[in-house]
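So, can you check this record?

>
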Amino acid sequence: MDKVYWGEALNYVVYTENRSPTKALGGKTPFEALNGRKPNIDHLRPFGCTAFAFIDKAKRAKLDPRAIKCVFVGYASQHKSYRLIDCDSGQLIQCRSVTFTEDSVPANDKK
């Protein structure tokens, strides 16, 4: 991964650690200690897995692809969306409608 994205990796670690139980808090998560409720972890995905970001109908032609292949790098802080790196352009994007292939890592696909 390019050094430019190391900040994304760090943000991902902090986000997931805050939703993981710790002995220091008696088995509670930092999120739970702060907010008084257990965090929802259904949206958690493995860092660096392959993701396909849906392209809205208004932004594509009839025969254009419906999704962009990306790499998952984290969670948006201000919105309920995922942060992704577009595999073709290398651009960082945010998207809510994403399909994940959790057992696939794009860096391993290049053989």
